[in-house]
């Protein structure tokens, strides 16, 4: 009974956890030196199933990128606890050598700045082939597959352009190359950290369309890290919102946009200027997110929250089922919890 | 009445051994006094060259840039000083546009000192404190350095600094694109409020059409050094006539899942046809 109760609030859909491709449980990330470590992320949990497209939304400092990087264990200085199960294997328990076989092979990664992700002194072809070469694939085979994946991503005249260097490519083309590097060893999950933020609107659109197409055709799961709610709306099925190191809201994309549960999510949606409507004045969220080393007591959002009451300043809210489905960490939704408890009780009785 | 006017401005960059680059081709742009005018374009379209020409940092190959009767590329002495005082700038990234070694008092008060508008130190400090209150900071912040502020607060400091000497024309180069969503709205509202209160003129350079629609009364769209469409922002953004403006508008992500998914479907279909 008790185990059901604790497991329930974490789960946002009814699919069994065993089928999950990626299952993150209570991931907690600390940085800094021992006496006063800074807690960057606290108890982050997320399930992704094959082919799922999930967005992780948050502002700078919310912990979204740190979470994504820690799933891949990219920062050796961070101390991680909790579990990150990928295809049934806990990535946090693997040795560094075993981890190399996961990174870029089973999980592909796309970063924000394509110029920073590419080595300027090595040809495009070599860089796209690299994951395969590390895995021991022969050069001719790797070349053939690199050409195929670049073709798939719409790089015209791929065979010739593999000999070019990154500076000869435009921003959008570079991002295609980075995507090719992530895709070449047929991963089942791609983690894309702000893949379109550095690009112009029209190039942004092209890259997103491409990711859309490729992920649908390959049945690829995508974890999209972004601060752009517009990008989220057209691309993902499910959205998790992070604020100050915690997941505070998670819902299907339609629910999140139509009935945002958390006051922070509501504020974010209202603060974005929209192309399809103008308002006399944009609604804002007062103040700024707290520094991770100086979070307020209680809910980290309480100083900015128009609905905060005493409990919000004392206790950190737990994630609970939200009225419209999904989960939310807000003291304003105790009713949903009571309902869920009643239901669980009934089921137990039956 | 127009405050800033660009007439047939051309700028060609010559590089050794390469084709000359025509960065600006016959730019005609009028900024009416007391309005917020948007200038929209992608990277490489010539937005920065226009700003540099207005600042007098680039001399146009041909054409005139007139600010309140002064031809900027030819201005010297008193005229140039007047332009320098009356035209102020707010840049994209407040972290790099504010000197990290100066206190807020010095940063915001620098213009008052340089233009000899307030040479008395304590009176200057009081003026700066007033300006800080105006942009939503406080006099407690006077002795702090930029690093101890968040991005949004730094942009407020940059705005206070620009407004300190009472400019007539404010040129904002992507002032909110480096800010977080929740803070972006605060800074946009601040700009709008200050403009209504003080009545200055703004040239607002941006790539985000939704932001332009929200705060600009007129908008000009620039593509590879040419203005392709210009007019009231409601008209241009509701019924764009130029294919480039239409393409830009279509590419703006719509934060409505139903509309956005439909757009994604259309794009995939287009992709298949192509």
Secondary-structure arrangement, i.e. CATH architecture of the largest domain in chain B = 3-Layer(aba) Sandwich
**Taking Cα atoms only, what radius of gyration of chain B do you get, to the nearest Å?**
20 Å
Instruction: Tell me the number of strands of chain B.
Output: 10
Report the order of strands and helices of chain B: EEEHEEHEHHHHEHEHEEHHH
Amount of beta strand of chain B? 15-25%
The major beta sheet of chain B can be summarized as: 6 strands, mixed
- Helical content of chain B stands at 40-55%
| Weakly predicted, low-confidence segments of chain A | 1-11
Describe this structure in words.
The complex is a heterodimer of chains A (350) and B (274). Chain A is of the alpha/beta class and 350 residues long. Helices cover 37% and strands 19% of the residues of chain A. Chain A has 14 helices and twelve strands. Chain A has helices at residues 2-7, 64-71, 96-102, 114-117, 124-134, 139-152, 158-161, 171-183, 201-218, 229-235, 253-258, 263-271, 310-314, 334-349; strands at residues 22-31, 38-48, 53-57, 79-86, 89-90, 107-110, 189-193, 221-226, 238-243, 246-252, 320-321, 327-328. An eight-stranded mixed β-sheet of chain A has the order 6-7-8-3-9-10-12-11, with helices on both faces. In chain A, strand 11 (320-321) and strand 12 (327-328) form a beta hairpin. In chain A, helix 5 crosses helix 6 and helix 5 runs parallel beside helix 8. The model of chain A is unreliable at 1-11 (pLDDT under 50). Chain B is an alpha/beta fold. Chain B folds into two domains: 2-239, P-loop containing nucleotide triphosphate hydrolases (Rossmann fold); 242-274, no CATH class. Chain B has eleven helices and ten strands. Chain B has helices at 47-55, 77-86, 94-97, 104-114, 121-134, 151-163, 181-198, 209-215, 233-238, 243-251, 257-273, and strands at 2-13, 21-32, 36-40, 62-67, 70-71, 87-90, 169-173, 201-206, 218-223, 226-232. Chain B has a six-stranded mixed β-sheet, with helices on both faces. In chain B, a hairpin with a 2-residue loop joins strand 9 (218-223) and strand 10 (226-232). The longest helix of chain B is centred in the last third of the chain and has 18 residues, at 181-198. The relative contact order of chain B is 0.15.
């Amino acid at each position: 009974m008790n185990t059901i109760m604790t497991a329930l609030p974490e789960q946002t859909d009814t699919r069994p956890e065993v089928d999950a491709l990626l299952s993150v449980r209570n991931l907690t990330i600390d940085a800094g030196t021992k006496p006063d470590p800074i807690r960057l992320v606290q108890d982050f949990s997320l399930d992704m199933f094959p082919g799922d497209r999930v967005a992780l939304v948050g502002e700078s400092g919310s912990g979204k990128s740190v979470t994504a990087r820690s799933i891949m264990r990219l920062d050796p200085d961070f101390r991680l606890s909790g579990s990150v199960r990928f295809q049934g294997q806990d990535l946090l328990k693997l040795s560094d050598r075993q981890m190399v076989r996961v990174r870029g092979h089973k999980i592909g990664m796309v970063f924000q700045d394509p110029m920073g992700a590419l080595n300027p002194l090595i040809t495009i072809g070599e860089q796209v082939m690299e994951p395969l070469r590390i895995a021991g694939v022969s050069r001719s085979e790797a070349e053939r597959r690199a050409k195929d994946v670049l073709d798939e991503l719409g790089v015209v005249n791929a065979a010739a352009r593999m000999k070019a260097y990154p500076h000869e490519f435009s921003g959008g083309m570079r991002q295609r190359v980075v995507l090719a590097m992530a895709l070449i060893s047929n991963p089942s999950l791609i983690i894309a950290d702000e893949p379109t933020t550095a690009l112009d609107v029209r190039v942004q659109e092209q890259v997103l369309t491409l990711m859309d197409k490729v992920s649908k055709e390959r049945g690829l799961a995508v974890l999209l890290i972004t601060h752009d709610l517009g990008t989220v709306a057209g691309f993902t099925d499910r959205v998790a919102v992070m604020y100050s190191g915690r997941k505070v809201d998670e819902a299907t994309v339609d629910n999140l946009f139509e009935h945002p549960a958390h006051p922070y999510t509501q504020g974010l949606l209202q603060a974005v200027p929209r192309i399809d409507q103008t308002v006399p004045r944009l609604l804002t969220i007062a103040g700024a997110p707290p520094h991770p080393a100086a979070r307020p007591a209680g809910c980290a959002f309480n100083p900015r929250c128009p609905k905060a009451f005493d409990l919000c300043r004392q206790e950190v809210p737990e994630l609970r089922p939200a009225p419209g489905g999904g989960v939310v960490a807000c003291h304003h939704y105790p009713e949903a919890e009571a309902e869920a408890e009643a239901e669980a009780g009934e089921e137990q009785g039956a | 009445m127009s405050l800033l006017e660009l007439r047939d401005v051309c700028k060609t960059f010559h590089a050794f051994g390469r084709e000359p680059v025509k960065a600006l081709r016959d730019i005609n742009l009028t900024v009416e006094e007391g309005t917020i005018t948007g200038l929209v374009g992608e990277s490489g379209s010539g937005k920065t060259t226009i700003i540099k020409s207005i600042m007098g940092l680039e001399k146009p190959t041909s054409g005139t840039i007139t600010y309140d009767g002064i031809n900027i590329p030819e201005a010297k002495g008193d005229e140039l000083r007047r332009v320098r005082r009356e035209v102020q700038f707010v840049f994209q990234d407040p972290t790099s546009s504010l000197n990290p070694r100066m206190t807020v008092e010095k940063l915001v008060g620098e213009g008052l000192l340089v233009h000899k508008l307030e040479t008395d130190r304590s009176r200057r400090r009081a003026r700066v404190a007033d300006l800080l209150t105006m942009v939503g900071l406080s006099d407690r912040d006077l002795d702090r350095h930029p690093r101890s502020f968040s991005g949004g607060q730094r942009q407020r400091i940059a705005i206070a600094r620009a407004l300190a000497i009472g400019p007539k024309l404010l040129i904002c180069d992507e002032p909110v694109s480096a800010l977080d969503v929740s803070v972006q709205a605060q800074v946009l509202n601040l700009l709008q409020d200050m403009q209504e209160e003080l009545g200055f003129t703004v040239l607002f350079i941006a790539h985000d059409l939704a932001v332009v629609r929200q705060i600009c009364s007129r908008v000009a769209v620039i593509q590879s050094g040419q203005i392709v469409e210009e007019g009231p922002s409601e008209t241009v953004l509701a019924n764009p006539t130029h294919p480039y403006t239409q393409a830009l508008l279509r590419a703006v992500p719509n934060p409505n899942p139903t509309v956005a998914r439909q757009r994604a479907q259309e794009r995939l279909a287009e992709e298949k046809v192509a």
